[in-house]
């Protein structure tokens, strides 16, 4: 990214207000996070939920930029909530936060494609930095930037191998990603400079490779296997 692009992104971010939904079954923690984040000029906590039902409903209703999910809920699985939100709200960034480092949980989070995995030991300044980075399109995993970059590269390589295993090329992955965002064949065609007939043919190729018969199942399979 050149300097002009960086400056443009910073200016755009400066005037954006990051809308956050907090999922935690402890009222004190939810309220504490809300108060701390709302003190920042560029954050707004738009809602809170304590379980899976509330998380899914409020995300669909409020369409937050980021959903911050406690991975260790008493009556729900934070990881399962993250999986469902990644499927149902592809334009929302999902960040899990957890207790002491747990490599299995970290790699499970990477595997399902969350945008952030943070420890509860983070300072408020570090948390805000991480959420800003996620909002700007970065993936943040843990407190060490070096570790984050290594893990991201491993994840990229794993996704590439997975893509090769399924036989999808990068163009087909892009088409499925657009379909996951709810784009019509006409919108995809406009983006890819194709006719609607070409898009339909490409979708048929994708269905065949993923062994499905329609768009919804193609998107679901691609998400389930970490292709998008």
In short:
The protein contains eleven helices and six strands. With about 230 residues, the protein is of the alpha/beta class.
Question: What features would you describe in this structure?
Answer:
The N terminus is likely disordered. The chain is built from 11 helices and 6 strands. Strand 5, helix 6 and strand 6 form a beta-alpha-beta unit. Strands 2-1-3-4-5-6 form a 6-stranded parallel β-sheet, with helices on both faces. 59% of the residues lie in helices and 13% in strands. With 228 residues, it is α/β, with parallel strands linked by helices. It is elongated and about 55 Å long. Helix 3 packs parallel to helix 4, helix 9 packs across helix 10 and helix 10 packs across helix 11.
Task: Give the SSE map.
Elements: H1 3-14, E1 18-23, H2 27-38, E2 43-49, H3 52-62, E3 66-70, H4 78-88, E4 93-98, H5 103-112, E5 116-119, H6 124-135, E6 140-141, H7 145-166, H8 170-180, H9 185-192, H10 196-210, H11 215-224
Parallel strand pairs: 1-2, 1-3, 3-4, 4-5, 5-6
Helix pairs in contact: 3-4, 8-11, 9-10, 10-11
> How large is the radius of gyration?
19 Å
Strand/helix succession: HEHEHEHEHEHEHHHHH
Number of strands: 6
Taking all residues together, what is the mean pLDDT?
A: 84
State the shape.
elongated
User: How much of the polypeptide forms β-strand, as a percent range?
Assistant: 5-15%
By DSSP (H or I, 4+ residues per run), the number of helices equals 11
- The side-by-side strand order for the widest beta sheet comes to 2-1-3-4-5-6
In terms of structural class, how would the helical and strand content be classed? alpha/beta
Cα distance spanning the termini: 23 Å
- Give the low-confidence spans: 1-8
Proportion of residues in helical segments: 55-70%
- Sheet having the most strands: 6 strands, parallel
